[in-house]
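A favour, since you know our structure tokens better than I do. It will help me judge whether the discrete encoding reads sensibly. The space below this message is yours for that.
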Amino acid sequence: MSAPLTSSIDAPIAPRPLPARTFWGRALRHRSFVLGGVLSLLVVASATLSLVWTPWSPYEIDIASRLRPPSAAHWLGTDTFGRDIVSLLLAGARSTILVGIIAVSIGLTFGVCLGLIASAKRGWTEEIIMRFSDFTFAFPAVLSAIMLAAVAGPGMLTSIIAIGIFQIPTLTRLTRGSANAIWAREYVLAARASGKGAFRITIEHVLPNILSILIVQATTQFALAILAEAALSYLGLGTQPPQPSWGRMLNDAQTMLFQSPMLAVYPGAAIAIAVLGLNLLGDGLRDLLDPRLARER
């Protein structure tokens, strides 16, 4: 006896799984992220290379070789003190990266902590923290550096503290606003109903959900820190000689704008590349880490 025939139409057809689009797969197709990453890596690679090698010593002064044009010996020429421009740019990248990393770390540490406390406690605690942020925001990095330089003297430490303090209120406000939105979610209300305390909810639910926002903002703050460090060094309040700095290179070049204008172009271009790279990287991270924007790509 033959088996009954079954129609192939009645048989369920299993859906073919779509290939998973990983983060790096989407990132490599994002032009802003790729270009920003390349420019940022170029700056970081320059700073790292300066730790082990520079064409010439960035600290050696050779007046006999001052204002040399680009050549095989000096690829971008020399400055008013006879120092190699390429060596100064590489060593200046190291100073810029160091100041930016430490200053942003200070801003993130205090800003995120204060913002999370303000969002979790509310009431007078939130009011005191936010008014303190308003007070701190009234002192820009340049003004803070002037006050610190009057007490402790100018230097890299002065610029790090001034830039770090100026970043705290911005990150405090961002953290508090983002955390308030998370505290109103249903899963947080359920966690509170189950008996979890404010500290545990903050660590387990609030902070992980605002981490992507903080990462994106950190790249923007890093770019602002680079600009602030260059401005403070240009004014003589930041990195002091003989330590190279892009801001100090601009300061040294201002008296030679008509004789050798490229002395100002090189450090200005380096600052522009670093800031542009970080801003593009931040825009790319925002698009990639935002679930709504990620689904569109």
Residues 15 and 226 are 51 Å apart (CA to CA). The first helix runs from residue 23 to 27.
